[in-house]
Amino acid sequence: MAGYPILEIADKLWTGEVDPHDAHPWFPESQLVEITDDVAFIPSFANVSAVSTEDGLVLVDTGSAMLARQVHGFLRSWTKDRLNSAVYSHGHIDHVFGVPVWEQEAKEQGWPEPVVYAHEAMPARFDRYIKTAGYNGIINQRQFQVPGFQWPTEYRYPDETYTSHLELEIGGVKVVLNHAKGETDDHTYTWFPKQKLLCCGDLFIWASPNAGNPQKVQRFPLEWAQALRAMLELGPEPPEVLLSGHGVPILGADRIREALTNTALYLESLVNQTLALMNEGARLSDILHSVLPPSDLTGLPYLQPVYDEPEFIVRNIWRLYGGWWDGNPSNLKPAHEVALAKEMSLLAGGARKLADRAVELVNEATKSAGVDLLSLGTTPMAANKEVPAKAQQCLRLAGHLVESASLAAPEDLEIHEVRKAVFGAMAGAATSTMSKGVFMWSANQSGKLLGDHTTQEGHHH
């Protein structure tokens, strides 16, 4: 969508003139968008919203470490005012690393330092991030295909925190902070009544809500839905501008109401369906393969599974209300996965038999999909449309079989050729960043092993 003004893209996305699969909310074209005389918006890997007051700027979110200087430069083209305050919508690292650039400027100019506001749970999040820096580095390498990514261990903690509700007056502008559980336990949505501006962080992201994320801690879909509904009741007059943590702005009270209400309905439906089956004693596997979001909502441009997926939300609902056990007695105290894989390959007549069947299943999937799955976009942010359910089922089975084959015979290069192809096809068929990241990481593991072997052979000769 390069070259188009953001507000034009926003309108065309809403009306269906632009396919949401062609406008991934994590990779907009960076530019400054003036919403009104006193409100600016910078689309970035995580968006930054700015409100001008008589005593300097208020930012909601501050950007990632990589793009902080770019964001600062955009805002400096709009205003020379100092940064008075920043609100962290939540503690994810793409939202909270911009303040040091402004602090450096304040020091150089002799201005007062900016004040950072956040929910009281955020310092504990930063503490946890420091403890789990290695794990978080690995999962982000895998999720975004960024080799060597290092998770940060130094954070700009908030100066002032609040529990559930905080009202501020900054330079003649009223700023209202409200806590919500949703994607995180430390979320804040910020309301500017005079501007009728709602900055909602990642509680709305122009995609199926990021309430499942397979590699991250617990998310809270029902509380998330409640927060979306509460945002529509913030004052006597509804929000007329919605600026979110990812994706484009929504302008107009009717569109905002529709977007937030439908997202709440989407989450509530997944929660209610899952709980109903849990209350009947269903296993997780049965629930995963039977719970679906409402069919009248799945076609909406702002609820596409381009980042997270409803299936992963269902897993998080199970984890929140149930526990880690999936209801299958053999999974309560399972054999080591390698021992199970060797037993399966023995019964099949060898690990290559499992790999051969995986190839057959990928061929069936390709035939069913009517497209070469490996030719589809496999970068994490390539948002593909869904392939048919029959093809997906074939690929799921192929994934099980080839992974068992590679666990049973880890040195077999022919099996790794198949493993690379199977998970490459699964990445091609996936719609979401989450799935693509995991499947491509797995395909690349085998590809690296094959490449390393070739190099070693060449050196030997």
Provide structural commentary:
The chain is an alpha/beta fold and 461 residues long. The chain has 2 domains: 6-271, Metallo-beta-lactamase, Chain A (4-Layer Sandwich); 335-460, no CATH class. The protein has 14 helices and 13 strands. The strands form 2 sheets. It has a 7-stranded mixed sheet with strand order 1-2-3-4-5-6-7, covered by helices on one side. Strands 8-9-10-11-12-13 form a 6-stranded mixed sheet, with helices on both faces. The longest helix is centred in the last third of the chain and has 28 residues, at 433-460. The N and C termini lie far apart (49 Å). The model has no long low-confidence stretch (mean pLDDT 95).
Keywords:
single chain, 461 residues, alpha/beta, Metallo-beta-lactamase, Chain A, 13 strands, 44% helix, 14% strand, globular
Task: Produce the secondary structure layout.
Elements: H1 6-15, E1 33-36, E2 39-42, E3 48-53, E4 56-60, H2 68-76, E5 83-87, H3 99-109, E6 115-119, H4 122-131, H5 133-144, E7 160-162, E8 165-170, E9 173-180, E10 187-192, E11 197-201, H6 221-231, E12 241-244, E13 250-251, H7 253-279, H8 284-288, H9 310-321, H10 337-348, H11 351-369, H12 389-408, H13 413-429, H14 433-460
Parallel strand pairs: 4-5, 5-6, 6-7, 11-12
Antiparallel strand pairs: 1-2, 2-3, 3-4, 8-9, 9-10, 10-11, 12-13
